[in-house]
Design brief:
heterodimer, A: 267 residues, 12 helices, B: 292 residues, alpha/beta, 2-enoyl-CoA Hydratase, Chain A, domain 1, eight-stranded mixed beta sheet, 11 strands
Chain lengths: 267, 292
């Protein structure tokens, strides 16, 4: 269904007209209200959090924001969250649990921010805490990867009951550029590294990481953003309705097993 | 004389010197293992002195990397260790070039099948489940086997109502296993959560270096976080950050002391006090001392 190479897909998701969460949120949710802050340190512009109606179900939305202009990107830090972003996400997820609202995570990040301040505020701990708490969050969690699923920075919003990926999106433990510089001491060989790492939606279905591929319009989501939004909407309605019907302990058991079973070894 | 010629003269002298000293070394035959150099401060130390100090640099206090066997010997009561899940061997999930060869080479070099050893033991009479990561094995990166052994250790401890002590060391997730390695972060964190929800105690001892995907998962999730002095702890690599921020980072950036100030750690404990500290924590949590 998709004959593009990994590199061609990466070019598509880096297209400056590719829809971001700012385009998708108004078409997916009604009466959306944004909530700010982690109640500890600050408000991170790289993650939007809030609640809105998905059809007639209120849901909590946690979304990583890529800007389209330099000014937007200054505010959203190119969708690279600081620890306070992950802590805001966790605070709102806990609130969703309290009010029995399903959580919808929209992932699109090159990775968690690497900087002095991020380290001082314990970036690693913030990510770890999200993995830990989301695993037993007593409400359905659905994650959709819209473009880039960059390593731990993406995983912190992707411990979920179901993971869907847009057809051209990628999800990887390391950026092909970094992999190339480790492997061959040559970051310009990122095209080769991208193929080796097996990071496309089809690859991840094969590994049991991705549950559903959401198709994109011919030529990529940027050519017909409404059509892409419709496909995401259709998937979310289906997934949230299904997961809401599942008894909560059964849901948590399945969530644990979804990750528990991943690994390839002999004994 | 122009400047290039000057360099030639200096260069020639150096080459001569090197030649002379290597000749001298051959004559005297200094054993290679008599001296060691501290990887942190560069001081040259007698090997014997270094070994007697449990591989702690007497000059700067850096707690050097240990093999799993060395760590085991200085931590657990003798003959108390029973290894768990010893035979797990990684496959090559994404068909990464020459990954099997690399693993085979590491098996031989490190006398271990994977980068972590797990088991049950007593420490000064207190029973616990123990994990020791060994950075000599592919920088103790976390792939399928490391993730699975940690997960099983926590599940076993939850079932037996035992505390868990993890000596962490890692460069992060194992790139050679692609997305499968990233998923081990979620898998291990989930296992820690279940152990915790069952009332289990988990103590993390962060050793040199604990970084990347391991620092951003089970290594940061202990009820109590202890670090050895001067070790490296952090999420992102120093060079990555240096390239992002384009300013010189302070020398102690991401040291245990830096992380203590950041609020990540409960305490920094010297190697010589580790057994006592761990057993005291177990005692304070009401675990019984076994008498032999």
């Amino acid at each position: 269904m998709n004959n593009l190479t990994t590199w061609e897909r990466m070019e598509l998701i880096h297209n400056k007209n590719r829809p971001t969460v700012n385009d998708y949120i108004p078409s997916l949710f009604t009466r959306f209200m944004e909530f700010h802050g982690d109640r500890m340190c600050g408000d991170d512009g790289a993650i939007i959090g809030g609640i809105g109606f998905l059809s007639d179900t209120p849901v909590t939305v946690l979304a990583q924001v890529k800007g389209k202009t330099l000014d937007e990107n200054k505010r959203t830090n190119f969708a690279m969250p600081h620890p306070e972003g992950y802590r805001k996400a966790l605070r709102l997820a806990k609130q969703a649990e309290k009010f029995h609202r399903p959580v919808v995570c929209l992932v699109d990040t090159p990775g968690a921010y690497c900087g002095v301040e991020a380290e001082k505020r314990c970036q690693g701990e913030a990510i770890a805490r999200n993995l830990y708490e989301f695993m037993t969050l007593k409400t359905p969690v659905v994650t959709v990867i819209l473009g880039e699923g960059g390593s731990g920075g993406a995983l912190a919003l992707a411990v979920c009951d179901e993971l869907a990926m847009l057809q051209n999106s990628i999800y990887s433990v390391i950026s092909p550029r970094s992999a190339a510089s480790i492997l061959w001491k040559d970051p310009t060989k990122e095209k080769e590294a991208a193929e080796i790492l097996k990071i496309t939606a089809e690859d991840l279905v094969r590994f049991g990481v991705c549950d559903k591929i959401i198709s994109e319009p011919e030529g990529g989501a940027h050519l017909q953003p409404d059509m892409a939004a419709d496909s995401i909407y259709e998937y979310l309605i289906d997934a949230v309705t299904r997961l809401k019907k599942t008894e909560i302990n059964q849901l948590l058991e399945r969530r644990y097993k979804k990750f528990r079973k991943i690994g390839m070894f002999t004994e | 004389m122009n400047i290039e010629d000057m360099f030639k003269v200096v260069k020639a002298r150096f080459t001569d010197d090197n030649h002379a000293s290597s000749q001298k070394e051959k004559d005297v035959e200094i054993p290679q293992d008599l001296l060691v150099k501290c990887p942190r401060c560069g001081s040259v130390i007698y090997s014997e002195e270094f070994e007697n100090a449990m591989k702690v640099c007497p000059k700067c206090g850096y707690h050097a990397r240990l093999t799993w066997q060395e760590r085991l010997d200085m931590t657990v009561d003798s003959n108390s260790f029973k290894e768990l899940d010893a035979d797990l061997v990684s496959l090559n999930p994404i068909g990464f070039p020459r990954y099997e060869e690399k693993i085979a080479k590491m098996n031989e070099q490190c006398d271990m099948k994977e980068a972590i050893v797990t088991g049950e033991c007593t420490i000064r009479g207190y029973r616990c489940v123990l994990g020791i990561m060994d950075s000599h094995f592919m920088m103790a990166s976390m792939g399928s086997v490391v993730g699975e052994k940690i997960t099983r250790a926590f599940e076993y401890a939850a079932e037996k109502r035992l505390p868990v002590i993890m000596f962490t060391a890692s460069g992060g997730a194992r790139m050679q296993e692609g997305i499968i390695s990233l998923m081990q972060m979620a898998k291990t964190s989930g296992a820690v959560k279940r152990h915790s929800d069952a009332g289990g105690l988990y103590v993390t001892v962060l050793t040199d270096p604990t970084t990347g995907g391991v620092q951003a998962s089970f290594a940061s999730l202990g009820d109590i976080l202890i670090a050895e002095p001067k070790v490296l702890i952090g999420f992102a690599g120093r060079r990555v950050i240096q390239n992002t921020v384009r300013t010189r980072l302070p020398d102690d950036f991401q040291s245990a002391e830096f992380q203590m100030e950041s609020g990540l750690l409960d305490m920094i404990v010297e190697r010589g006090m580790m057994r006592k500290t761990l057993s005291n924590i177990l005692k304070l949590h009401g675990f019984p001392k076994e008498v032999h």
